[in-house]
Amino acid sequence: MRTAGTYLLLVLGAVVTLAPFLLSVQTALKSPQQFASEPVLTPPAPPTLENFAELFGDRYDFVSPTVVTAQVVAVILLGQLVFSVFAAYAFARLRFPGRDALFWLYVATLMVPQIVTIIPLYAVFADLGIRNTFWALVLPYVFGHPYGIFLLREYFKGIPGDLLDAAKLDGAGTPRILWHVVVPVSRPILATLAIITVVTHWNNFLWPLVITSGRQWQVLTVATSALQSQYNSNWTIVMAATTIAILPLTILFLAFQRHVVRSITITGFR
Questions:
Q1: By CB atoms within 10 Å of each CB, which of 34, 243, 250, 252 scores lowest?
Q2: Is the pLDDT of residue 218 over 80?
Q3: C-alpha closest to that of 219 among 244, 195, 240
């Protein structure tokens, strides 16, 4: 009975979690006439892709926000992985004065809410003349993040020192050790950091809303928000846009869930 009760609670939690996403997809597959005339939970009969075709048509033009979002996420992901690996390895394995104090001071910036830094960042980018540009979207995030560096540092500290010493005895320098030793054994945690980075910046809304204007550099979240305010009665189109935003993240997680599970066993070097 106890096991059955546990599974029942898990099933209920899964239903509550997945219900909004399933409702979004179901609504996106309905025609506006069916959505207006039938209860919300009624399945689409028949399912239609007209909302998606209209979303990417001339009226809404969701191709540009999708491409811009993909480009922003790709650049930020590359920068986060490269600079986080360098910084985390330095904090975990290299010795220099003030290393630990500098690390914890950097990690302490996680306590600062994003909203506090929005105005100073906006002022800096406006003075530099790069407001409403591609680089304005990526520069605040491309050089690493305290959470990502903390995550990798803890993992790197768990790598056996004998493994790194053996590479040093073979004449390997720090770049070679990073590329040929540390990165290969850290694939699970790097995959986890990649997923966190992609999800975070694919869903980023506040900074793109503040630093950009117009359609040229509009990302998916801002475009969907504008869609809701402009066409509030056409919920089938809005849900189609939401489904488009969710789909890549779902595919990403399904493809890399094995690495995410493996990364939980951070101390699993045997």
A1: 250
A2: yes
A3: 244
